[in-house]
Amino acid sequence: MKTSPSMLFLTIGGLLVLGTLANAGGNPVRSPQAVVVGDDAVVVLDRTAAELVRLDRNLKPAGRTLLTGDPCAVTIAPGKPLAYVAERTANRIAVVDLQQDRVIRRVSIDGGAWPVSLAVDRDGRWLYVGTAFPAKLFIYRLGADGTDLEPLLAVPVLRWPADLAIGPDGVTVAVANQLPVRLEGVTGPTAAVSLVSFNPSDPGRWHRSDIPLPPGSSGLRGVAFSPDGHYVYAVHGLGRVRSPITQLERGWVNTNALSIIDTVSRRRVATVLLDDLYRGAADPADVVCSPDGSRLWVALAGSHELVRINIADLHRLLQGSVPGWLERIEDSMQANIWVRLRDNPSLVRLLENDLAALRLARVKLRLPAGGFGPRALAISSDGATVYVANYFSGSLTAISTADPTRKRTVLLGPMAEPDAVRRGALIFHDARRSFQHWHSCATCHQHGGRVDGLSWDFVADGLGNPKDTVSLIGLAETEPMNRRATVANAYDCVRNGLFSTNLKPVERRVVDDLFAYLAALRPEPSPLPLVDPKLAEPARRGKQLFEGKAGCAGCHSGPYLTDGKMHNVGTGSGHWEEADGRYDTPSLRELYRTAPYLHDGRAWTLREVLTTFNRRQRHGHVERLSAAELDDLIAYLLSL
Amino acid sequence: MVVLKQALRAVLLQLLLVANLVSDPAGAAAGEVDQVPIEEVVFAVRKPGPDGHWYANFGYYCEGPSRVAYTEGSQLCRLNLRTGKLTVLLHDPRGTIRDPQLSYDGKRILFSYRPGNSMYFHLYEINIDGTGLRQITDGPYDDIEPTYVPDGGIVFCSSRSRRWVKCWLVQVATLYRVERDGSGLMPLSAANATENTPWVLPDGRILYTRWEYVDRSQVHYHHLWVMNPDGTGQMVLYGNLYPGTVMIDAKPIPGSDKIVAIFSPGHGRREHQGAVTIVDPTLGPDVPAAARRITQSVDYRDPYPLSDRLFLVARGPVLELLDDAGNGRELYRLPKTLVEKGMWLHEPRPVRPRPVEPVIPHRIDPSKATGRVVLLNVYAGRNMAGIRPGEIKKLLILETLPKPINYTGGMDPLTYGGSFSLERVVGTVPVEPDGSAYFELPALRSFFFVALDENDMAVKRMQSFMSVQPGEVTSCFGCHEKRNETASPDIGPVMALQRPPSKIKPIEGVPDVLDFPRDVQPILDRHCVACHDYEPTAKGGPYAGGVVLTGDHGPMFSHSYYTLTVRRLFSDGRDLPRSEYPPRAIGSSASRLLKMVDGSHHGARLNRHEFTVLRLWIETGATYPGTYAALGTGMIGGYHENRQYNTDWNWPTTRAGAAVMRNRCASCHTGPRQLPTALSDERNVSFWRPSLDDPRLKYSRHIVFNLSRPDKSLLLLAPLSRDAGGLELCRKLTPDGRPTTAPATVFTSRDDPDYQTLLRMVQAGKAFLAKIKRFDMPGFMPRPEYLREMQRYGVLPPDWKPGQPVDPYKLDQAYWRKLWYRPRRLP
Question: Considering the entire predicted model, what is its pTM?
Answer without folding.
Answer: 0.93
